[in-house]
Design goal:
Strand order of the largest sheet: 3-2-1-4-11-10-5-6-9-7-8
CATH superfamily of the largest domain: Isopropylmalate Dehydrogenase
Radius of gyration: 20 Å
Number of domains: 2
CATH class of the largest domain: Alpha Beta
């Protein structure tokens, strides 16, 4: 695999993608190389792997990957961890390198040297053990870029799920579902469907929180007191089609048939269970609201199979494809709005 140390910006109008390290003790670097091997056969993008050349070359050799396009370079201008990697468990030195690669990626993006960041998985418990108080990629990327308003979207199959609450314990969800949060999530989804997905007039469906969307207040009143008023406020601010709150156990079939452009979900599993069921291991996490494109595979470090080199790169490949697509859509959106 021909990899250079340049880390230079891509030339011409090509999409420029930085791929962070991920946890080297997990499957992240493995699926990144496998996916890039397929992605660059069809894409004209240029890719910067944020890790050492020797690390990625050794990994590619272990996996017996054939020659890859020369549009891959490596960039890690600091000492990279050496020594044998013990797969299947986090190590502080490797976790610190993974975090540094995220910081480097944001720096490159904020400098305009890359258009998009794709992030292989890191381990949240490993982050804590290494001394990092970081909930996850989404929050850390927002902090590093100074982004105040951001949302998590998961894309898979015909679904685009956007979460009102993210990694919130179920017992705390109701208190976190406020009029402001619901309205902000709807409007951010609307904005990004136009800017990042090229949809001129988005169709949004909003989930209820309670069974049967509260059934007129007999099974909870959050729909009446919180979600419905937020939907009405959002409707006044956009020409998008916004329906709901509807019962999730019914609306996802219509969503699966493609009748909506995005689904606004009140909590994590409400949206991710149907999405992961239909995406069949090819879902993608997208952070909305950042000043750069960020995508990620929707799986974790998979310590149980790390080092066996049998991990499926499907989700990572989709993350790369979507990063390039969103980047191109945003450039078109900016050009059209500059003319208008």
């Amino acid at each position: 695999m021909p990899i250079s140390q340049s880390g230079k910006p891509a030339s011409g109008g090509r999409c420029r993608i930085a791929v962070t390290l991920g946890d080297p003790a997990g499957v992240g670097p493995e699926v990144a190389l496998k996916a890039l091997h397929q992605f660059l056969k069809k894409s004209s993008a240029e890719v910067i792997l944020l890790g050492s050349e020797s690390f990625f070359k050794a990994l590619a050799k272990k996996m017996k990957l054939g020659a890859a396009p020369s549009r891959i370079s490596c960039y890690f201008p600091e000492k990279f961890p050496s020594g044998k990697i013990v797969y299947g468990r986090s190590e502080n030195i490797l976790t610190r390198a993974a975090v540094r690669s995220i910081e480097m990626a944001v720096q490159l993006a904020m400098q305009g040297r890359v258009d998009a960041i794709v992030t292989p998985p890191i381990n949240k418990a490993g982050l804590k053990a290494a001394g990092f108080d970081i909930p996850g990629h989404t929050e850390y990327l927002a902090e590093l870029s100074g982004t105040k308003r951001y949302e998590m979207m998961l894309v898979g199959g015909s679904l685009r799920v956007v979460l009102v609450t993210r990694h919130t314990p179920i017992q705390n969800v109701s208190g976190k579902v406020t009029r402001r949060r619901v309205k902000e999530t709807i409007l951010m989804a609307d904005q990004e469907l136009r800017r990042s997905f090229g949809i001129k007039k988005p169709r949004l469906v909003v989930c209820g929180l309670n069974p049967h969307a509260g059934e007129s207040g007999t099974i909870g009143r959050e729909e009446i007191q919180v979600i419905e008023p937020a939907v009405r406020t959002a409707r006044r601010k956009t020409d998008a089609l916004i329906v709901g709150p509807l019962s999730p156990d019914a609306l996802f079939y219509d969503a699966y048939l493609g009748r909506y452009d995005a689904e606004i979900c009140m909590y994590h599993d409400q949206g991710l269970i149907p999405l992961k069921m239909i995406s069949r291991g090819a879902g993608v996490n997208v952070t909305l609201g950042l000043p750069f494109v960020r995508t990620s595979p929707d799986h974790g470090t998979a310590y149980d199979i790390a080092g066996r080199f049998k991990a499926d790169p499907g989700s990572m490949l989709e993350a790369l494809n979507l990063a390039e697509s969103i980047s191109n859509n945003r450039k078109k959106y900016e050009r059209s709005h500059q003319r208008s």
